[in-house]
Amino acid sequence: MKGYTICYVLFPILFVAVLVESAGAAEGEKDGVYIVYMGAATSSSKNDHAQLLSSVLKRRKNALVQSYVHGISGFAARLSAAEAQSIAKTPGVVSVFPDPVYQLHTTRSWDFLKYGTDVVIDSSPNSNSSSSSGGYDLIIGILDTGISPESESFSDKDMGPIPSRWNGTCVDAHDFCNGKIIGARAYNSPDDDDDDDDDDNTPRDMMGHGTHVASTAAGTTVPDASYYGLATGTATGGSPGSRIAMYRVCARYGCAGSSILAAFSDAIKDGVDILSLSLGSPASFMLDYKEDPIAIGAFHAVENGITVVCSAGNDGPSEETVTNVAPWILTVAATTIDRKFESNVVFNGEKVIKGEAINFANIGTSPVHPMIYGKSAKKTDATESEARNCNPDSMDEEMIKGKIVLCDNDDDSYTFYSKEEEVRSLGGIGLVLVDDKMSGVASNYNEFPLTVISSKDAPGILSYLNSTKNPVATILPSTVVSQYKPAPTIAYFSSRGPSSLSRNILKAKPPDIAAPGVDILAAWMANDTEVTLKGKESPKFNIISGTSMSCPHVSGMAAVVKSQYPSWSPSAIKSAIMSTASQINNMKAPITTELGAIATAYDYGAGEISTSGALQPGLVYETTTTDYLNFLCYHGYNTSTIEVISKDVPDGFTCPKESSVDLISNINYPSIAVFNLTGKQSKNITRTLTNVAGDGNSTYSLTIEAPSGLTITVSPTSLQFTKNSQRLSYQVIFTTTVPSLPKDVFGSIIWTNKKLKVRTPFVASSR
Ligand SMILES: *[C@@H]1O[C@H](CO)[C@@H](O)[C@H](O)[C@H]1NC(C)=O
Ligand SMILES: *[C@@H]1O[C@H](CO)[C@@H](O)[C@H](O)[C@H]1NC(C)=O
Ligand SMILES: *[C@@H]1O[C@H](CO)[C@@H](O)[C@H](O)[C@H]1NC(C)=O
Ligand SMILES: *[C@@H]1O[C@H](CO)[C@@H](O)[C@H](O)[C@H]1NC(C)=O
Ligand SMILES: *[C@@H]1O[C@H](CO)[C@@H](O)[C@H](O)[C@H]1NC(C)=O
Ligand SMILES: *[C@@H]1O[C@H](CO)[C@@H](O)[C@H](O)[C@H]1NC(C)=O
Ligand SMILES: *[C@@H]1O[C@H](CO)[C@@H](O)[C@H](O)[C@H]1NC(C)=O
Ligand SMILES: *[C@@H]1O[C@H](CO)[C@@H](O)[C@H](O)[C@H]1NC(C)=O
User: Fold this and answer.
1) Which residue ranges does the record assign to the Inhibitor I9 domain (predicted)?
2) Is the pLDDT of residue 498 over 90?
């Protein structure tokens, strides 16, 4: 269908967003699936839950979609808007909201997964893939599209018996589970009316995404992995010693919030250690914490000692695009690795222009194919801009047939896949796309000769096309460039901070950490014809990009840390990963964005993961339940709501009298954000560090990296620990030296002893 805009193609969730908004309005509310959230599952909540549920079920048959009783209390049910409203008023109900649909965080939506894309798992170039038993016997739960158990990455060779604490199971998955995949469940999406699509009932992966993510987190070591010879190497997950429990919550149309909440509840009961979610809402559609099943589920998972790692989203590089920002979540941005896939253009005899793409072009290495600029093939009723962008129905078939077409990509109405389709359907034999946004990310075009060049190289080709009557060129098949410099860089698509949700809070909450998420090779589902080259066997690995791919790198790492320090809380693990991150690339220069600017905490949080560092952080910030509850107070929830939400409310807890959002800066988080800092004002922030170094006596001294416009005073200036588990606090006073900071500014507070460095990034803003 023509006139599909990129918005609809990429974000089917927008339909849902519209639906949700209208459901929230007084007029025009809709009947549909609603989630009724009743806080933590406690013995006292069980009665409320049972009563409310039975009253709902009396009203209508088949109303119930999901019921949550482990860790989380509540249910999802088909309700009228009036019923939803009346249930919302029932005591014990925290919130009632329409079931949202989330999207996977690959750079392509599922709509385009079928074109094949980039895959495979390999660990970060700077990382030291510890031992092959990394993450020994930890259990990583993954909420995704399912898993392909045939993959060699999920072999259970050398894995001992399943840990006896495991309380999960494999449902509707015959011959599915082994010593590596120890749990598998699937959830029916409530809105999937698609009759011919019974895929929902199995944890088998029909899309590839879940298989890729699972093998990145915990795949066993597979030598000689590649995508048809590209990126050949040993594929290993972040914690090859860990077990996998797959919770299939996504189908073609997206990932239902009601399913996600059910998976969280099951995972809590099953006894996973880490949860990994490579999905979320788009930046345009942020949900408040108590209406966001990911935030809700993660809160209760963390209450139960489970570390929750989520992707930050692919809506960068604009600010305020980061998603999954609740402070109990570890939020992951994406970086490039030191490997590129080059598919170059040869024209004008010997001239070569570098292009980036994964293709197996076979039109020869000699520049003998006629080439044309889209604009030169303009149809009379199309605009010049449409034609040079190779938009559907803008170019003349006779002019395109048999030629390589040069296309711009500077209007956002169509995806480059629709341009590819248009050129192919008009008989074009190749496509050179001019696009800086794609820089650093090689998409997969299989056999079609398509490559992406930078705009700075475009004038060279354009003037050649202009200069001769019969211009000729060719597109070379991809080759791999390794040890590429600089790396890592922040992926163009990676979502940025600050959070648009609660300013002070983690505005401080940009992404927390960054990890490889560009052109990652990892296991792929079996028999996927869309990524299979003609006449070849289907690939066992694939190369894809997204914060979806960076998230499981960190999940694997969290498992490795947890296996070494089983008693550490999720916040201690998060702190260890953040305070030891790196800000330096492989040229010993500061990590930059894809476009070359020095990266800030808004781009990568604390920095790029350092696998060795996180195992020896020295000191950690422990964010307590009280911190999280205070956070909810500051965010605007009252004491009675919070008492329902959390099972761990300390006796006598009440929200502080002055619960302003400004106070969010004070929760004991491994990064600091202060906002509203104007007119030579000061803000006084407290942080508390816990000694986990294991050697008892240790003195840390202070270094401050302060941006201009800001004075930072820290006291004390030395932290002298005398025993393990000891906690010491320090104060930081931020003072502006100018009436108003010109923009948000960044810096860090670093505590070092002779061996270890504990870095705390901060952002300060007048906004
Ligand atoms: C990797 O491990 C080796 C041996 O333990 C060590 O010498 C090396 O410095 C480590 N490299 C990194 C990047 O941590
Ligand atoms: C183990 O699972 C059963 C149901 O399968 C559940 O009743 C029980 O509470 C679970 N145990 C734990 C410790 O969560
Ligand atoms: C191509 O030629 C036209 C007219 O001959 C001229 O207007 C245009 O600027 C040229 N473009 C390039 C990129 O050289
Ligand atoms: C893939 O296809 C082959 C050949 O048709 C078949 O034998 C095999 O069972 C299929 N594998 C899966 C996982 O569907
Ligand atoms: C707490 O907030 C909820 C939801 O906004 C509201 O319904 C309730 O009345 C409030 N309770 C108190 C004691 O203010
Ligand atoms: C900033 O300060 C003003 C006045 O002091 C207050 O009303 C506002 O809520 C604050 N905003 C944030 C984001 O803290
Ligand atoms: C900052 O706050 C701490 C803890 O509340 C307090 O002890 C300290 O005196 C304060 N410092 C200033 C300069 O206000
Ligand atoms: C740390 O130092 C103190 C005094 O210097 C000493 O009494 C104590 O035993 C030491 N603790 C450890 C664990 O070494």
Assistant:
1) 33-105
2) no
